[in-house]
Amino acid sequence: PPEQAARMKKLQEQDKRQKVEFRKRMEQEVSQFIQATGEPRRRFQPMNKIERSILHDVAEVAGLTSFSFGDDEDSRYVMVFKKEFAPSDEELEAYRRGEEWDPARAEERRRLRELAAQQEEAELERGPAPPGPPNDYKDKYRHLIGSEAAKAAARTMEANKAYGCVPVANKRDTRSIEEAMNEIRAKKRLRQAED
Asked: The pTM is what?
């Protein structure tokens, strides 16, 4: 119906007008922010996605850095930063967690991290700890095995003749692999000649 189309057109024009007015208002606020000398960053009221995108665009045109923060759609807001006060990753992380950014606390954390890194480096330079367990397992089990048991066990260890370890004295075949192969080939040739 034509009246519905007319109503739609009117709503679209109204929507467009509101966006233009909102953009003008944001441009004024951003230019005030740029002129405010003691203000490195400005937090705007929560706004919807379209308004945030307009504000981001205005900030970009003005040569500012802008980020959105807040978890759900109703509470998301934009923060605008002057280029020379662009936020560090740490600062952004704080805003993402919903915390206030405290440069002094961040500096303290950075110093602690540096100290930890220096200690780690010093430990690396000292070299690895000597290999082996920090204590002797025999001390732990002395009440069970006594202090001579391990030495006695080591002394009595001999090759078990029934299991894999064959002393050289017991080996009958002392030929090398080449000698054994040559003998096999010779036997084969002899058999072929007989056939």
From this structure: 0.52
